[in-house]
Amino acid sequence: MKPTAILGVKRSNYQGIANLGNAVHAGISGNATYPTPTPALTVLQTDITALEADIATWGPIGNRGSHADLLALRASAAVVYADLLSLAAYVQNTAQIAAGNDYTLMASLIGTSGFGIKNPPVPQGILGAPQNLHRFFANNISLYTPKLAWRKPIGLTSPNNVKSYQILRNTVNNLLTATVIATSTKTSYIDTSALAGTAYWYWTKGVNADGPGAESNVLATSTPV
């Protein structure tokens, strides 16, 4: 059973849609596996910018905008969601052509695109990739200390199969040279060692008695100056 590129975010999660859009844009940009994304990344970026503006206009809980602002937000979120569905199909088809029947390679290629991956169930002891690694934004979290969040790997035969998670970080989009900066027993982590005005790429891996499992999708983000 082949791995599948998935969005892994609800239509009502407007910030989550924007975060995934940014991750996909970063993952596909300059990625030789995906030379002709559909829609074009310029279109995706324009739509994400519009969505983020509508999120800001709608405002945080307790200081919401008007009903018209909400309708505009829903419309712009639907546009980005449709962009991502099209890009997920493009990534799936392109990775399948490039990998053939090598499903491990296919999963690896999909993982570089910014999308999550749905894998078939795996035996206990072999960990799949953590899902939907993203940056979590909240009023009480500084933009200088990115908070990362993700979901457990798909196909676990036991809820406690994952003992911890490695958090890997790099200043370029290259997992091979990334450094394990921390471990966490939770599906979240706040990077207090991040430097101001710096772009980062993050990954996470589940760990159990057999060692680290497959890497998550890549998360590209930055801190303000």
Describe the fold and architecture.
- This protein has 225 residues and is of the alpha+beta class.
- The protein has two domains: 4-116; 121-222, Immunoglobulin-like (Sandwich), CATH 2.60.40.10.
- Helix content is 33%, strand content 23%.
- The chain has four helices and ten strands.
- The chain has helices at 14-28, 41-58, 67-99, 103-111; strands at residues 4-6, 116-118, 131-136, 147-151, 164-170, 179-184, 188-190, 199-208, 211-215, 219-222.
- Strands 5, 6, 8, 9 and 10 form a five-stranded antiparallel β-sheet that branches. Strands 3-4-7 form a three-stranded antiparallel β-sheet.
- Helix 3 (67-99) runs antiparallel to helix 4 (103-111).
Layout of helices and strands, plus pairs?
Elements: E1 4-6, H1 14-28, H2 41-58, H3 67-99, H4 103-111, E2 116-118, E3 131-136, E4 147-151, E5 164-170, E6 179-184, E7 188-190, E8 199-208, E9 211-215, E10 219-222
Antiparallel strand pairs: 1-2, 3-4, 4-7, 5-6, 5-8, 8-9, 8-10
Helix pairs in contact: 1-2, 1-3, 2-3, 3-4
E-strand count:
10
The residue ranges in which pLDDT falls below 50 over 5 or more consecutive positions are none
Structural class: alpha+beta
Beta-strand percent range: 15-25%
Percentage of residues assigned to helices: 25-40%
SSE string:
EHHHHEEEEEEEEE
Question: What average pLDDT do the residues reach?
Answer: 92
> What's the assembly state of these chains?
single chain
Main sheet characteristics: 5 strands, antiparallel
Radius of gyration: 17 Å
Distance between the termini: 46 Å
Number of domains: 2
Q: What is the overall silhouette?
A: globular
